[in-house]
Amino acid sequence: MSELRDLQKILIDFRDERDWAQFHNAKDLALALSIEASELNELFLWKKAEEANIEKVKDELADVIGYALLLAEKYDIDIRQIVVDKVKKNGEKYPVNKAKGNAKKYNEL
Amino acid sequence: MSELRDLQKILIDFRDERDWAQFHNAKDLALALSIEASELNELFLWKKAEEANIEKVKDELADVIGYALLLAEKYDIDIRQIVVDKVKKNGEKYPVNKAKGNAKKYNEL
Amino acid sequence: MSELRDLQKILIDFRDERDWAQFHNAKDLALALSIEASELNELFLWKKAEEANIEKVKDELADVIGYALLLAEKYDIDIRQIVVDKVKKNGEKYPVNKAKGNAKKYNEL
Amino acid sequence: MSELRDLQKILIDFRDERDWAQFHNAKDLALALSIEASELNELFLWKKAEEANIEKVKDELADVIGYALLLAEKYDIDIRQIVVDKVKKNGEKYPVNKAKGNAKKYNEL
């Protein structure tokens, strides 16, 4: 079993032991992911990047990734494939010669 | 190389070809992750869960996972480990006998 | 009519001309608010605070405030009252002698 | 003094008593706003729109509006003006004859 599928299985088992699939529609999973992303951001609020508490970053990042894996499972999405596809697409939006050393959005390049 | 490390390498190579490490401090990576999570949520706005466009979900979820992988790499975080640790911690916050069939937050159980 | 009620009326008229009340349940209004807040944040991504484009800030902040006003109207909330109440509550969580010159969260003071 | 200016003054006084202006750069204010918007959304997570706790909605919405007012003050933005301007702009993006009874985004109308 792949590393990602293995993590998904752990999360699904956790969910099913609690009979939570009934709450895990895609809209609420996406919302939960966003809320956890926001809790991750709170660790940096009013601070410099290097001042965040790393243990708390691990905790919140784990929640974000957990919901991302559950949402992917919901749609039977192949995570490796979508990341590879997106990198390819971004390579077209951000060609090296235009984007190098430049943080502008593609529509402002 | 593990599946997750392999994806991280693809993302890091993409970043480095564009000389973007200079922008990728942890605070802005977390912010980028949150913005992508929000774009994912926009696919469900004013809609039922099952009405989102799946191809767009793949696209936005790939962005979320991409920034999560980059942030993990930034801190040299072992993704598998933090997810496993968090599931264990959540098992204590949400014991099966209290949480089964119940979507309440742990502090309201 | 108060300034806030007047703005709410403008937004409600806009909504009703388009027959959009059917989509504006509280959950989606809160989600829309969050998405606009995220678009506001995108104006600061990879940038220093002072580098955001002010005209775009106005645009996104107007969207945030618009949804906040619509959500308040949905619940018939008195905006002035809840802000005043919250400042009072925050005064108790963040007493001047503990919080002065300090950005810590109340539970870490 | 206008109702909005009056609320801003209450918030600024609260901030200044605690010497917090030093933390309130525009980027972190926008981030704080987004985090509060996310806490507002959490009140609806795994729930139907009508199941949120109204007292908590008031509390979180007050935080959102508080940061919106502080951010507007930071840029000396006239809130009434930007909302009126945005409604006008949205009227062009969402003409009644195309948008009526339809929740599609303007670029899909």
What's the helix and strand layout?
The structure is a homotetramer of 109-residue chains.
Chain A (H helix, E strand, L loop, with lengths): L2 H15 L8 H17 L11 H21 L4 H15 L2 H4 L10
Structure notes:
- The structure is a homotetramer of 109-residue chains.
- With 109 residues, chain A is an all-alpha fold.
- Chain A has a single domain, classed as Orthogonal Bundle (Helix Hairpins), CATH 1.10.287.
- Chain A has five helices and no strands.
- The first copy, chain A, has helices at 3-17, 26-42, 54-74, 79-93, 96-99.
- In chain A, helix 1 (3-17) crosses helix 3.
- The longest helix of chain A has 21 residues, at 54-74.
- The relative contact order of chain A is 0.11.
- Chains in contact: A-B, A-C, A-D, B-C, B-D, C-D.
- Chain B binds chain D through residues 31, 34, 45-47, 103, and chain D through 31, 34, 45-47, 103.
Which key phrases capture this entry?
mainly alpha, globular, 5 helices, Helix Hairpins, 109 residues, homotetramer
Write a brief caption for the model:
The structure is a homotetramer of 109-residue chains. The first copy, chain A, is an all-alpha fold and 109 residues long.
Oligomer: homotetramer
Q: Average pLDDT across residues of chain A?
A: 96
Helix content of chain A: 55-70%
Number of domains of chain A: 1
Low-confidence stretches of chain A: none
Please identify the top-level CATH class of chain A. Mainly Alpha
CATH architecture of chain A: Orthogonal Bundle
Total helix count of chain A? 5
Q: Quick one: CATH superfamily of chain A?
A: MazG-like
> What structural category do the secondary elements of chain A indicate?
mainly alpha
Element order of chain A: H for helix, E for strand:
HHHHH
Largest interface: A-B, 66 and 66 residues
What is the third-level CATH name, the topology of chain A? Helix Hairpins
Give a count of the beta strands of chain A, DSSP E runs of length 2 or more: 0
N- to C-terminal distance of chain A: 42 Å
Large-scale geometry of chain A: globular
Largest sheet composition of chain A:
none
Which value, in Å, is the CA radius of gyration of chain A?
17 Å
